[in-house]
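Ops channel
N.P.: pipeline sanity check, posting one input/output pair.
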């Protein structure tokens, strides 16, 4: 596995993990709020690497990427960051895989750069809206909304407590001590001002998503208490050709809780397009 820096919009340095078969079909993983590329460990270190080129980016403000104070509110910025990864790594029509907030980023990309340079998309508990359009649509769980104020806190104990609760909401089936501290560390490294910047956006990309024509897979845990299955149904209504994969007894992170099944379905999707 290689780690490198890509120059994103405005000169922001984006940390990227590049693994797998260099000549294989490529997959770009886009994580969610307060996470990083290590969230995809069960994909990057799986047999998917024997067949595909696996590229996982730390979105701006996260992981080892730059964390500016105020560079999160413009859809064009997010679109250009993904475009920079595709172009600078010379990826040929990658499949975009977006988790949670990653759905907003994927649809921002399509809004500005279209679908010509991608093979399709995989939405994992992912959103096409942010802010008021997302909340008013009834797409977020009440337990997640209750955690949000703590995600903005500068008080260390309050912030860590909220992040710990967020992890439990994402993966309700439980974690080993090693997994919990890995994921908590991933979250803690993100400054509160970054989470505030991401969650202060008002966005409705439904019109963009509704025009998407490339293959689309919606992967959703039935027990998702962060982004409710109502969002899955909403996107499926916007995109009639979208395929749906539902995970019984799984929460917000099926790629972690049910990684074997998820990886198998991801392989099938990437091989088919």
């Amino acid at each position: 596995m290689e780690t490198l820096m890509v120059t994103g919009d405005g000169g922001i340095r984006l940390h990227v993990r590049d693994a797998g078969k260099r000549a294989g079909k490529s997959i770009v993983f886009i994580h969610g709020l307060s996470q990083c590329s290590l969230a995809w460990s069960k994909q990057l270190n799986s047999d998917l690497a024997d067949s595909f080129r696996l590229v996982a980016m730390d979105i701006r403000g996260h992981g080892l990427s730059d964390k500016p104070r105020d560079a999160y509110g413009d859809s064009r910025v997010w679109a250009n960051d993904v475009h920079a990864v595709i172009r600078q790594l010379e990826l040929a029509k990658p499949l975009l895989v977006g988790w949670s907030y990653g759905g907003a980023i994927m649809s921002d990309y399509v809004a500005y750069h279209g679908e010509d340079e991608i093979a399709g998309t995989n939405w994992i508990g992912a959103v096409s809206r942010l802010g008021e359009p997302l909340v008013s649509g009834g797409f977020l769980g009440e337990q997640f909304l209750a955690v949000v104020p703590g995600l903005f806190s500068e008080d260390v104990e309050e912030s860590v407590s909220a992040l710990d609760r967020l992890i439990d909401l994402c993966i309700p089936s439980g974690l080993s001590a090693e997994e919990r501290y890995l994921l908590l560390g991933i979250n803690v490294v993100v400054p509160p001002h970054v989470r505030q910047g991401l969650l202060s956006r008002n966005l409705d990309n439904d019109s963009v998503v509704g025009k998407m024509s490339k293959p689309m897979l919606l992967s959703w845990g039935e027990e998702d208490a962060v982004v409710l299955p109502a969002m899955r149904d909403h996107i499926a209504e916007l995109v009639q050709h979208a395929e749906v994969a539902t995970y019984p007894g799984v929460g917000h992170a099926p790629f972690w809780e049910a990684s074997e099944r998820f990886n198998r379905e991801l392989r099938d999707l990437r091989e088919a397009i």
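N.P.: looks fine end to end. The CA atoms of residues 160 and 188 lie 7 Å apart.
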